[in-house]
């Protein structure tokens, strides 16, 4: 299953927003999108791995020049319903959290926050169904040379640049391997320990109790504590002019192969063959112990000699103008900009504190009602308990949450139980 995305730029022009025009002016405009080719391979043992391939999404529906691609893997546990639900709804929830009518640069800048809102909203809605099961979620959005990855759980996305640099775009949310997450779970009221056999013998990986899950973040999982949160680690990078290859795979692959071996064993092969070879190599190394799913995506610029250098300072000033936010709101974006080989790191954040991830809401109408919930995107009017949401002081710039989403937030922080309020 190969696909190419090569846009015909001679198509009928569309009305262009002023913001878009200014954005193009500031960075130098490039019309050609890189080719995005992909391949998929997988072997099922339990049948709980799901994946999503959407190469033809559009920021502005009906306008092919605003296209972007989405790839995702959902590795379910204790049943498939969380993985199926997340596959069906996560992308819509993420896109629904991006303000409409903004240009490409602003859209890319809003994406990390929208990913957090979309993941949490998907978890809240799945839990409302009252069904068991949970899932990892690794969602990759490719727009031109900008790659944004959001993930909870232990599926992984690696990047192999043509210069030979292999980097990890996700963080493993396994209690066994993530000390920071163990501390967070314990501080929120969870207990972390191994399975205790009769006789007191401890076996297996570190798990969180109640529930016994090995992961510290997931979507779903009603039967474990709320401190197993759906808040994703998000990383956004700009690829070098020469493009790169992404390998997105479930833990069935990564338990058998290191990032280096997975990347190196399939270099030079087409994406379809590469995906098959990675799965085959994992099978050869460890046997079929778990579901294994692998997506290989090549991002190939058509003519990389034309790519302009990005004037970052100007772009950031422009963003703060557009969003009406102070320059220091973007400190995480600018301070972390650094070169990893030729890969430009634009954004990285993994905090489980929602206020740190959602910032102040992008106002739909500046300084006027209604307030929009930063998670579910519903508008709150004064008659709907807005006094609960009003800022405590004029300087308060935190995100607004509706009462349901606020309850979810407090439950995740270990402040109160969510059970009675979410199942309805
Ligand atoms: Zn809400």
UniProtKB/TrEMBL annotation:
<dbReference type="GO" id="GO:0004722">
    <property type="term" value="F:protein serine/threonine phosphatase activity"/>
</dbReference>
<dbReference type="InterPro" id="IPR001932">
    <property type="entry name" value="PPM-type_phosphatase-like_dom"/>
</dbReference>
<comment type="similarity">
    <text>Belongs to the PP2C family.</text>
</comment>
<dbReference type="InterPro" id="IPR036457">
    <property type="entry name" value="PPM-type-like_dom_sf"/>
</dbReference>
<dbReference type="GO" id="GO:0046872">
    <property type="term" value="F:metal ion binding"/>
</dbReference>
<keyword id="KW-0378">Hydrolase</keyword>
<dbReference type="Pfam" id="PF00481">
    <property type="entry name" value="PP2C"/>
</dbReference>
<keyword id="KW-0460">Magnesium</keyword>
<dbReference type="InterPro" id="IPR015655">
    <property type="entry name" value="PP2C"/>
</dbReference>
<protein>
    <recommendedName>
        <fullName>protein-serine/threonine phosphatase</fullName>
        <ecNumber>3.1.3.16</ecNumber>
    </recommendedName>
</protein>
<keyword id="KW-0479">Metal-binding</keyword>
<feature type="domain" description="PPM-type phosphatase">
    <location>
        <begin position="27"/>
        <end position="299"/>
    </location>
</feature>
<keyword id="KW-0904">Protein phosphatase</keyword>
<keyword id="KW-0464">Manganese</keyword>
